[in-house]
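stuck on this:

***
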Amino acid sequence: MTDEPLATTPATPPPAPPLVLLPEHAGASHFSLQHLSGVVTLVLIFFASASITLAYLSSGGEVAAAGTQTAAAAAATVADPFAGLSLQAEGAYVYDLTTRRTLYAKNASAQLPLASLVKVPLVLAVSEVLKPDEYITVPPHEMFDGTEKRLPEGLSFRTADLTDFTLVASSNEGAAILARSAEDALRSKYPSATPGAAALWRMNDISKNLGLDRMIFQNISGLDQSATQAGAYGSARDVAMLFSYAAANAPALFESTARDSIRIRAASGETVTAVNTDEALPAIPGLSMGKTGSTALAGGNLAVVFEAGPARPVVAVILHSTYSGRFTDMKALVEATVAAMGAGR
């Protein structure tokens, strides 16, 4: 069949049946009913095919989307290094300093004993008035924590060296000397400071200014006050925020805490060695700051700032673990954090 006019037939064969014309085509080019029927059939087939195609694509898209979502959920589950993480610590927290995002939390708001983690705010407080290169002469003092005297009376050390010794060795002796040396200058700078306890007052003032409402210091060492009363309390989140502040505003004060040991020299030449109390040190990549703490009430504490990825500093906190468990816990937390960074979390 074509779109050309029908040809005239010979006289001998019987005449062809008359054409039936649709009203709208009368007087115009005439199409046969068979031709029109074929066109209608093709149109119906086209729309039917289109409907089937659309239905297939719609169904396929939904299936594909569902499959993608399922795969993504499965990947997220597999890729989450913190899933199933088992820690001895009662409280733990991991905070990304770059994105300011919480990566992991366990009882992050629980108020727990801090022990020697308080030496970080102590150093922040006294550094406001004690210059790094000025010399401090060790005054007569008694040891109140049962340890041996490490800093002989009469020797003079740079403030920076005494600070390093106090942090690395977690020395209560050093903490007392620093606080005593800063007393008058802190009272002068802060008239509201408590007489005889200006460093302690300023430590609590720093905490308050940072909005750390679960944190309170009752002494400058973190030693337990009694069998039931700790020397300081705070949450894992509070500690992370405090360390974030210290790492951002006074990183040089805490550089020594990333070293295995240090040796400080008195003005007269005598030396004193301090060994780092952080046994997890070798397992922490890019460590820039760390502090241990342990008392009967606190158990084992540890907080660190380290590089979990290129230019990705992170704070990790372990509170109320055991004396040795804090190091095992921190290694597990660091490993999970590094893996999370590697997975793009």
Summary: Residues 33-79 form the longest helix (47 residues).
